Amino acid sequence: MPRLIPLLFAVTLAPQALAGPAEDLVGAARAQIGVTLSYDPAYQRIAYPNGDVPRERGVCTDVVIRAYRAIGIDLQQRVHEQLRAAGKATDRNIDHRRVPNQAAFFRRHGTSLPPSAKPGDYRPGDVVTWRLQGGLNHIGIVADQVSPAGTPLVIHNIGSGAKLEDVLFAYPVTGHYRYLPAAR
Fold first, then answer.
1. How many Cβ atoms are within 10 Å of 70's Cβ, its own excluded?
2. Which of 46, 62, 125, 138 shows its CA 20 to 30 Å from the CA of 114?
3. What InterPro entries does the database record attribute to this sequence (predicted)?
4. String of b and e for 152-181 (b: at least 16 CB within 10 Å)?
5. Contact 112, 106 (CB under 8 A)
6. Which among 57, 58, 94 has a CA at the least distance from the CA of 75?
């Protein structure tokens, strides 16, 4: 029995000891569940850099923004800088909160993977975009849990706050990205 206790202690600590950027990103997205309780697309003036709308509300892009910010990556600043460098009109209060702008950023600075109908092609921390009914864009982060059918769950906000749900293949996938650089 004395030998078993150190082994159990090591196994309990192993996930934290092996945690990398993807696991940190998923953990940061998961931390929003129960905190971000509503969907609110209202335009607001926010600080720059590191600005945010009140944490109890937001949209799908805010889940992604907050998760990356928690691991030291400010998408507000990075998306704004990308748009400005391209000579586009910018509004640092909202540009980073638009799915097409985030998708363009991830395509340019991350790894763009082909959309796939295979659950095994999606890893924890991947960012996925969808086309919802009515042509609306949506975005979320692949979690480290799977459904009983083996489909990776997604952390997103589609109308009632941040949630962990089995929606990866509920809508047409339009983008699949991996973006885990060092923070700056």
1. 15
2. 62
3. DUF1287, Papain-like_cys_pep_sf
4. bbbbbbbeebbbbebbbbebebbbbbbbbe
5. yes
6. 94
Q: Considering Cα of 24, then 30, then 36, then 39, what sign does the dihedral take?
A: positive
Beta pairing class for 137-146 and 127-131: antiparallel
The tokens describing 179, both together, are 């973006």
Burial of 96 (0-12, 13-18, 19+ CB in 10 A): buried
Helices (H), the chain: 4-18, 21-30, 60-70, 75-85, 99-109
Alpha helices in 31-115 (DSSP H): 60-70, 75-85, 99-109
Per the rule left: phi > 0, alpha: psi between -120 and 50, beta: everything else, 161 is left
CATH architecture entry for 20-178: Alpha-Beta Complex (3.90)
